[in-house]
Amino acid sequence: MMIDRHAETAIRQTLAHAAAVVLLGPRQVGKTTLARHIAASWPGGTVYLDLERPADRLRLDDADAYLRAQSGKLVILDEIHRVPGMFDVLRGIIDDNRQAGRRSGQFLLLGSAALDLMRQSSETLAGRVAYLDIAPFDIGEAAAAGLDATTLWLRGGFPDSLLARDDRRSLDWRPDFIRSYLERDVPMFAPRLPAETIGRLWTMLAHQQGSLLNQARLAAALGVANPTVDRYIDLLVDLQLLRRLRPWSGNVGKRLIKSPKVYVRDSGILHGLLELETLDGLLGHPVCGLSFEGYCIENLVLAAGSRRVPYFYRTHAGAEIDLLLEKGGQADIAIEIKRSSAPSPAKGYAQACDDLRITRRYVVYPGNESFPLRNGAQAIGLAELVGLLRAEIGG
Q1: Are 185 and 82 in contact (CB under 8 A)?
Q2: pLDDT by residue (tens digit) across 242-268?
Q3: Quick one: which of 361, 358, 354 has its CA closest to 380?
Q4: For residue 126, what is the DSSP state?
Q5: Enclosing H/E stretch for 88
Q6: Integer Cα distance of 261 and 243 in angstroms
Q7: What pLDDT is recorded for position 113?
Q8: Residues 261-284, mean pLDDT to the nearest whole number
Q9: What is the pLDDT of residue 62?
Q10: H or E element in which residue 161 lies
């Protein structure tokens, strides 16, 4: 089942003016499926190479000669992080093509580790490459495919989990996914970091979903130093498995919380780490409310796009905003998340909005109707607010 992805339009548009596009996303998020779908209708033909396959790597023994022979085609290089020396080859080809007047649609590079790949490519392809992200399916993509929001929340947005025949098969897939990261990706991207310890940390963070990060407590539980925990979390963030939501730190004359919050980005992976198979099991678990919060935050941050920077806001006095979106240095959208059919914003939310002089105040809840609340807030369903944010960036 091929589900239309928001990223497809962005990839096609970017390839129309950029020589190379790096598509970043977690393993098994659908990068290859989408790339092959684009390739099927690409004018001039395409070449697809999976750099995990020895046979495809052999074709690149003389990478410069082979890739130059594909002139006029879109060359898709999957798992590009496995051959970091390829960026030097691409630089020479792109520069020569530019001199010949060919400036767009040459290379689509797929990779899993955002910071690692961006560091490798920026050193050699500065000004020659554009970066795009692809995340698991969001609420809009799922709805367009006829999948309900509750199923998306329970199973998460990874295709094999979301589209499984039933909840049992969906849950069975997720431990395999988690194990593949610990056995393959962690040793590849961070060979000196112990995969077993990172797996324990990942599970601990799942139990503390949406909580303020307490590195000292985590370090003590794992038997490691504070900076080591920071490196472990950096890796999981880099692999796009965790979201580290920073606290807003502007000057409002208030004592502000300075620790970040940490969320397992995909709700299905969160539930897999906690072994939650069914909706009933999730609804009866202590993580339920914070799972819904993380699920909403992930959808909203992705919908807001790169032009808005996400934060949370909390003062020591209790004023709090679950998700604060800033644009051009100005915080202008405040979102509270309530898993209730009759949402009511907390007093601290109104105080926080007043502190920051925010007029666009939304309370996201599981329903579909939109209606006014006190203190200028508006109750709104997640799908509707995601649609509003996407409309603002034209996507």
Answers
A1: no
A2: 999 999 988 777 888 999 999 999 999
A3: 361
A4: T
A5: helix 86-99
A6: 8
A7: 64
A8: 97
A9: 93
A10: helix 159-162
